[in-house]
Amino acid sequence: MAESEPSRKRAKAAKKGLLERLATGVVVGDGGMIWQLEQRGYAKAGQYTPEACIEHPDAVLQLHKEFVHNGAEVLQATTFWASEERLSGKSDSVNDSACKLAKQAADDGEDILIAGCVSRTNYYNEGRGKERCQEEFKKQLKYYVENDLDFVVAEYFDHTDEAEWAVEVLKTAQKPVMATLCIGPKGDVDGVSPGDCAIRLAKAGANVVGVNCRFGPDNGIETIKLMKAALEKAGVQAYLAIQPYGYHTPDASLTGYIAMAEFPFAVEPRTLTRADCHKYALAAYEAGARYIAGCCGFQPMHIRAVSEALQDKRDGRVAPVTQHYGKWLNCMESQERYKEDDRTKAEYWLSLCAATGRPSNPAISKPVLTEEEQLKESASF
């Protein structure tokens, strides 16, 4: 028998919201949708806009489902760079479809939250002003309200004041607001420190503040620590979120991957292993982050590693894949043929210094852009 509308409403009312979950534990989000879609042949590199939501909806739906299966309890609708300025004539249909696909995928999981995001505009760098930028944010927010998403996100901003403008708009939806910047330990491109960035976003009305993309986990954790210290010193309350780039960036400079010689088509040797993600999750939690996820480069298997590392902090939530197969770190223990092999032990994988298999390659690279060039490039990407 089909579920009645009243029963669906009761089920939704019983679902814990983002802030309720953060108050009692850690929330595991998903990975980088648009990056994965490009690698699978459903988006254009460099442009990274989500036309796939209307051109290849099955591909978007499948990827959402894989993140749920691997432990994500939040799905961000594929609305990154789905603004009217970037998708002229398609923005409305893309945003609406993105919301509906994420909600459809959520049916595969238990109590999955759905979020919609707005991101920085070209209008800011063109000097078009606050009102014009906010008009763009409002166009996308309309669909998040109409589709009754659970919370809203301002992400991938490198100017804190533009992020504040976005938060002002998102607050009007009367839903929890998360705001994340694509910055490293040096702060935003205007020289605002990570701590001051966090304080300003929280005071603007964001319930959750943090970092996403451009920098790998180690850089991101360092930045989160700076944010946490500043928030505590100022007596400002906000949860902390981290969604790093899915690649190692020890050589990242001011704008992260923007200046890396390998970006975007040769970053794969820097890919995080599952053990890297296990350790990242625990380190991020220790640093104070309570919303822990990934951005570009984070695959479903990476989210599984994050989910399993934090399982005892997730209020009893266990990923479907873990329920079926057990934790990846322990999956070889029961196989007789590996009985005498150290590779059956979790400690082996967590302590392994993995080889790259590329004997002639350097461990790090030199930036291909000066800081001045990075700032210019950052304005357009």
Mean pLDDT score: 93
Which quaternary structure do these chains form?
single chain
SS summary, helix count: 16
Provide the succession of SSEs: HHEHHHEHEHHEHEHEHEHEHHHH
Strand content: 5-15%
Global structural class: alpha/beta
Please give a structural write-up.
It is built from 16 helices and eight strands. The chain has 381 residues and is an alpha/beta fold. It has an eight-stranded parallel beta sheet with strand order 1-8-7-6-5-4-3-2. α5 runs parallel beside α13 (300-309), α8 (130-146) crosses α9 (160-171) and α11 packs parallel to α12. The model is unreliable at 1-11 (pLDDT under 50).
In short:
This protein has 16 helices and eight strands. With 381 residues, it is α/β, with parallel strands linked by helices.
Characteristic terms for this protein:
disordered N terminus, 381 residues, 9% strand, alpha/beta, single chain, eight-stranded parallel β-sheet
Give the helices and strands, then pairings.
Layout: H1 5-14, H2 18-24, E1 27-28, H3 33-39, H4 52-55, H5 57-69, E2 74-76, H6 91-106, E3 113-119, H7 122-125, H8 130-146, E4 151-157, H9 160-171, E5 177-181, H10 194-204, E6 208-212, H11 217-234, E7 239-243, H12 274-287, E8 291-292, H13 300-309, H14 320-325, H15 346-351, H16 371-380
Parallel strand pairs: 1-8, 2-3, 3-4, 4-5, 5-6, 6-7, 7-8
Helix pairs in contact: 5-6, 5-13, 6-8, 8-9, 9-10, 10-11, 11-12, 12-13
